[in-house]
Structures
1.
Amino acid sequence: ERASLWGGRFGSGPAAALAALSVSTHFDWRLAQYDLRGSKAHANVLHTAGLLSDDELATMQGALDQLAADVASGEFVAAPDDEDVHTALERGLIERAGGEVGGKLRAGRSRNDQIATLIRLFIRDQARVVGDQVLDLVDVLLARALEVHGVPMPGRTHLQHAQPLLLSHHLLAHAWPLLRDVERLRDLDRRADSSPYGSGALAGSSLGLDPQAVAAELGFSDSVWNSIDGTASRDLTAEFSFVLAMIGIDLSRLAEEVILWNTKEFSFITLDDSFSTGSSIMPQKKNPDIAELARGKAGRIVGDLVGLLTTLKALPLAYNRDLQEDKEPVFDQVDSLGLVLPAFTGMMATLTFHTERMAELAPQGFSLATDIADHLVRGGVPFRSAHEISGACVKMAEEQDKELWDLTDDEFAEISEHLDSSVREVLSVEGSIGSRDAKGGTAPVRVAEQEQAVADALTSL
Ligand code: ARG
């Protein structure tokens, strides 16, 4: 006969429908090793407080180690009537250490401070794992940027040709947000560096147990200042969830460009065969499924964040069972990104850039019109008039279905007394790109510095 964790005051066990609703082992089992680490630390403070003899501690630790090995090997698994990972592991401990010793572990702790600690341990580990996967992608973006240094492309606003850019500059524009996402993960790891263990159910640790000793053993710098906060807050989980959502969004923006660039109309890239898919009916197809799945999973990953925040909204202190709903969204985000990121990085590392096509399109769509205006400003013309004059050049070229540089000297002169053949100096992609040479601009010298800055960021993170 199996005693539940709260058997004493109950005349019957839970109804089947309650048990089915309540059970969480199918997802919280992945926290089992963290739970066992917590239990080992807790056993030590029970011993220090004189609540476990030397022999009992040795028996307890031996049983916990055995249980950890059995969980790792799959020998010990949750039973259908184990409510959650904590319940199951207590059963496993008692099976190994006997009820006399095993039954002592639960003193002075609650599943509320246990689960709050486990989530932090999980978040801290996964912040590192996801962060490293993001840095792998940034590594590739930088390598590709270095490889195509000097290649121009059409820069767009509103998806219309705007001004020419270096392809490297564009690729690194995707690297910076990802680097900030990794910084966000590092930041939240620092905030998560306090252990809730010892908060008990909500009011704190009794029995002379030392929360800071448990914290130190679990790799935290300190324990929490407030046991209610320790057990009932989930802002750190939400923060982690937000950063994962942001990573999903940042990937989806690059994904969208990959999808566009891969079309016949753009023809900016070709995906490597091993990172693209075919069609079951159309033999010619080579589809950007990785980018599409990244874009699609971004929606799901954002949904996870919204679900978690909605669970937390207006939840009174302290612990409520609603909080059991905090785990699946975050697990889903971690798992989704764990699949997307390596595939995405592989796709970016192996695609071919059609640099001639990009260079050819860079000056089209009147993308050098701003350079005409800037040229006039350098000659003393107010920008307001310069903008007008340059606009008139565009109008005339458009009417004659030609590009700006195809206008004749006479035509330039006809448009404005301020225009002569010297304007041709700025009517080149190279000139345009090279002129944007202030910090942050697309001029090759600045992009070279930027590449170094990204490399530095990669080493420091
Ligand atoms: N399984 C719960 C969770 O994930 C922890 C158990 C706390 N249950 C309780 N009735 N206080 O949040």
2.
Amino acid sequence: MTPWVIGNWKLNPATLKDTQQLLQGIATQLQKVEQHHACQVMVAPSFIHLSAAAALLASDVDAFDDDLHLAHLAHLAAKGISSKSLSTKVNTIKLAGQDVTALTDATGAYTGDVSAVQLKDIGVEWVILGHSERRQYYSEDNESLLKKVIHCAYHGLGVVLCVGESEAAFLAGQTEAVLAQQLLVLQSFIKAIKQADNAARNDIQNSNEHANTIDPAAVAQGAIDLQLSRLIVAYEPVWAIGTGKVASVQQVAAIHHFIRQQLVGFDASLIQTPIIYGGSVNAKNVDEFAACAAVDGVLVGGAALDAQSFVNIVQSFCSE
Ligand code: PGA
């Protein structure tokens, strides 16, 4: 499967200008990677910068580095390739939100929240959900995550569901138990989809056990939108996030195998769901992960804030 390299910018950078420069830098460096179409590249700016990032990516290629643009046009012309493909190259960067409200998929009196319909409207295609920082600081749990996943599916937004154990759980040998519990949100999602399908067919919406909290129509639409390309599971051990303590590739491969077993137990179609790793990934340690068949990509925090190091990570996956 085509690997994913996803940059989670978290609450960075401080200014719009720096955000634009970072995105321009990534787009520019990416054009230099010969095989960059061999990899799916996505970044998740903070909400306040998403619109500007979407506008930048949708803008004409002239918004990017002029010299490089001209050099690249000459390079393409020499190869007999139409310059139209250059725009395609720039537009290969996808955008993700870092969260979405659980309270509604649309609009309403929810001060400070951002909804799936708003993200969709500005050109965002994916949402990162269940990141350990949201679980820790905002008590995100499976109940709210289920609503968020359904809202995203309803609007055709892909979901990067993050799971991962704390250091204490890791040391106590409880990694699999923690992950199994966190992954149950996907089992509930699939169950809700199937129930909604039945409900829609039999017109028995009121008997749906989720009817009080979840709009059955949204669930039914979510069923249509449940496609393999719209779900990614990111394994991010909490003790490896932002600590420099990267998990070994052997550990990660074993955990990814466990996650795969859980997913397939929920529904056979999830055999193809990408399972990516996150936690102190950088340009120096990424090669091992890129070479590992059980790792379908990486979710990168700190190292995604430097255009060159992020694109070097992309390059590692492209050359595998
Ligand atoms: P890190 O963050 O790469 O800085 O460890 C990863 C993440 O939180 O997704």
3.
Amino acid sequence: MGQLMQGKRGLVMGVANDHSIGWGIAQKLSAEGATLAFTYQGEAFGRRVKPLAEKLGAPFLLPCDVEDSASIDAVFEALGNEWGGIDFLVHAIGFSDKNELKGLYADTSRENFIRTMVISCYSFTECARKAAPLMTGGGAMITLTYAGSVRIMPNYNVMGVAKAGLEASVRYLASDYGPKNIRVNAISAGPIRTLAGAGIADSRQMLSYQQRNSPLRRTVTIDEVGGSALYLLSDLSSGVTGEIHYVDSGYHIVSMPVLEELRR
Ligand code: NAD
């Protein structure tokens, strides 16, 4: 165990199970000495997250549905009352109706467009606004995004539009909170098999395409995303804010893959 997060306390939102990216991040932070609080969405997830939170000795496990502002308020109020302040926030939350994560983007319904935006984009801004006053000694926040925000990924559709908004939010929040020494960044992770990932049609094909065509010729793990999150939430990255940091085996730099048989 290292010391990078010794004495730091923070909130991890978006762990559903031990495959979640949020769980990969939580384990890395805890191994470096961080004290963690977790939120969960609804009782069914709560039952799965409880033993995970206990494993890392988390003193708080709080319900939170980000569609409900009062539920967000209650989480940050509880943290303020118990801890007085926090040092970091992890937002690893995303949702869209899986019936619209296939077919044409053009067919996205108004109702699901709004719901996807609220949960996958706006909730980060709302949580950041609640977290910032608790970061009296400065702090760091991260969210999770995907390259479908800037380039077309089959079936990612409205989630790509929400992630584009989320990435723009990161830049605006970094500007808002920079003077308070609060840094705001995002990790753009490559495809990983998780509950949310499985909702995207043909996600297996996306994974194997990245495996074959990224510079590292493989996908990434939640442990690797956790390592980059540790960097962005610790003092190692004290000069970094407003950044979209890719953890995707380098896939985002590729236009046409360099085929082995054509190498000279
Ligand atoms: P996951 O299913 O393990 O986590 C998604 C989390 O979002 C769950 O814990 C779920 O409870 C939470 N959530 C959804 N709606 C919510 C609501 N209304 N209120 C509160 N919480 C809610 O999947 P994951 O892949 O670990 O997803 C975490 C983040 O990483 C998401 O933002 C996702 O878009 C992003 N991401 C995932 C991948 C991937 O391939 N898995 C790639 C890049 C980015």
